[in-house]
Structures are given as C-alpha cells and as structure tokens.
Design brief:
By secondary structure, the protein is mainly α. It has seven helices and no strands. Helices cover 68% and strands 0% of the residues.
Length: 151
C-alpha cells in the first residue's frame, strides 16, 4: 500500500483537531444552556478554543491551496546544461562527455546549421543545432553498441 503523503497526513490531523474542537464547542453550548451561570475559566477556555479553531481553519485553507509543503528544487533542463555547464567544460571533459573535441563540435554544428533539416518552421519549431548535436553525440554510442558488435 502506498505511503500517505506528508501533506495528506497533515490535512487529516488538522481535520481531526477541527472536528474535536467543534464537538467540544457543541458540548459547551448545549451544557451552558441548561446552566444559568458560567465560570470565568470555562469562558476563557471556550474563547481560546474558538481562536484555535479559527487558526486551524485558516491554516487548513492555506494548506489545501498549496501543492507542496516545502519549496521544490528546480530540475535543470537540457538547455540549462548546454548554456551553463557545457560552455565551462575543459577540452578533456568535453571530449569524454561528447566524444569529440570542442573545436570539432563547434565546426560540425556550424556545418549542420545550414542544412534544411535544421530549419525551423512555425508549425515545427526546433531546438538549436548545438543542443540537438549534443544530445545525439551523448547518446549515440549507447544506442548503436549492438549494431557495432554485429548483433
């Protein structure tokens, strides 16, 4: 059985506490109608419970609007990788990751950029040539390993 999410557990606890406070309030109101006088401690308890109930209701409304309890970390996208990380790699690391030297990669991307396959249309927008080439060179050996082995 899947484990309940932290938000769902917290909402259930809040709902239980709100229901408990409502039941207490109903008990106090039905009990005070039969009695003529209330002690000052009972009235202060009731007002503090009313305040707690209001706070809980407000927090529950806020929590229901939030999808996550904590701020989510952003997952970097491939364009972020190309813009920030790829441009900072030294030649050795670039060759390891992209299987060619930086100057060959740039030259190949420049040659391919003029080809009609890489021209974007309004109906079919494309990612930049360097990005497409990077994805292809990073994944190509893994996908074609069985072809090279003669399998």
């Amino acid at each position: 059985m899947p484990q309940a999410k932290e938000r769902a557990v917290l909402l259930r606890k809040m709902d239980r506490r709100i229901e408990l406070l409502r039941l207490r309030r109903e008990d106090c109101s039905s009990g005070s109608s039969s009695e003529d006088t209330e002690s000052s401690s009972d009235s202060s308890d009731t007002s503090s419970e009313e305040c707690e109930l209001d706070i809980l209701k407000t927090r529950r409304r806020f929590l229901r609007r939030c999808l996550y309890l904590r701020k989510r970390s952003l997952v970097p996208k491939i364009s972020h990788f190309v813009d920030t990380i790829l441009s900072r790699l030294n030649d050795v690391r670039f060759k390891v990751d992209l299987r060619m030297y930086t100057e060959f990669f740039v030259d190949l991307a420049d040659r391919l950029a003029g080809h009609r396959v890489f021209r974007s249309t309004i109906q079919n927008p494309q990612r930049p040539v360097q990005l497409q080439l990077m994805v292809a060179t990073c994944t190509w050996p893994a996908k074609t390993a069985s072809c090279r082995n003669g399998a």
